[in-house]
Amino acid sequence: MKNKISLKLGFLFLILMVLIELILFFVLYTNLSNQRIDEVLNGLLARGGGHRDVLENNFDPSTLAHVALMESEAMTDVVITDTRGEIIAASTELEPGMRELINLPLGNLTHHGRVIEKRWKTEPYVATLSPIKVGGELEGYVYMFSPSFIISEIISQLSNQFILVMGITLVITIVTVYILTKLITKPLIHMKEETEKLSKGETRIDLKYSHNDELGVLAQSITRLGKDLDRLKHERHEFLSSIAHELRTPLTYLKGYADIVSKPEMDSGNRQKYLTIIKEEAKHLTNMVEQLFQLARIDENSFSIQRKKQVIFPLLRQVRNRMYPLLEEKEIELYISCPDGVSIYIDETRFQQVMNNIIDNAITYSPQKSTISIRVLAEDSYVVITVTDEGPGVPEESLPYLFDRLYRLEKSRSRAYGGSGIGLAIVKEIVEVHEGRVFARNLKHGGLSIIMHWPKEEEE
Q1: pLDDT less than 50: residues of the chain
Q2: Strand, coil or helix: 139
Q3: Residue 67: inside a domain
Q4: For residue 60, what are the CA distances in angstroms to 54, 70, 83, 88, 139?
């Protein structure tokens, strides 16, 4: 299994490189072979031209005999004829193929001469023809013949050399492809092994591929994925532990007070008091379960919103009216500063849910007879809504985690304030679903501000 990618990649590389090499070798072989054939034919024509030049200077029997004698010891042959085609000198006895070439029509012929036979694959000879002119008058012709096997041997030697070079090149190619494939696939195989660990639940992976290329980016992504999964695993454990703790506390109260109320000697006054506590704890438990259900719906992307343009001030006034009993209980004043006609593009129900959670949180942590203010400021594409209280604020190190699920400032999870650590998490999720953002900031002289950016118009 580990070598499948190596084999596939290596095979593809090898096929590609072999095809490229074959094309290059074919072009090179064709050019070189044609060049060698042309060299033989041009050399034969030049040799005939040399004999012609000698005869043009001395066209006599002794010179003719000398030229024929020179070629008798060479691989090539010369035949000299007069203008009527009669042979006046030859370095060898003429064979039928030679006579056929001599008897061919001359056609257009320049003083430079020309090749009259170049079919070396099928004919026994290649031949050239050069005219002899003395004093401007045509006196005869020089025919040069070369056995075709000379060219065949040259091409055969060239082919053997190419076969040898191709064999060496193929071996080098295979070795190179093998090494390159191993170098490329080794980190991929290592990444595959590490990702298999992720599927088995091991989130601590070790990828030390540090090159700044695509593989390096992939290695960084896998490493980051492992860290994210490790963080999510830890957060899930913390979340489940927190949920268990948050649910266990009201259930313990319910059971304890139910046991007390069930005692027969309990008087009616105390029984009513404990029943009231039981109702409050049941309500608290119901609210918590509902909030958890909303978080689950958000995670499953089944948390739908129906957005439309809404004027802000009437919505904020409704929130204040709804929160009036809680404000009155702690004698807290809630001020709203909002320019007329400012509107945002929101789901009305979800917006009021956000404001309810934030103001409820501000009331919970604000002292008696204090003030909570809501300030609205319209910007270019967003409307900024700031909710400020006069409570103790939040430690600076806790600000980044204030909107995390089940995050509570009291590590002991004291119920003094009654919070569950879910309300602000829902606020963040709803604001972000609206393409907005939310964050918190401590005031210099005490108190906490929750700042929200809501979009003014529908996103294009």
Answers
A1: 1, 411-418, 460
A2: strand
A3: yes
A4: 10, 16, 15, 10, 11
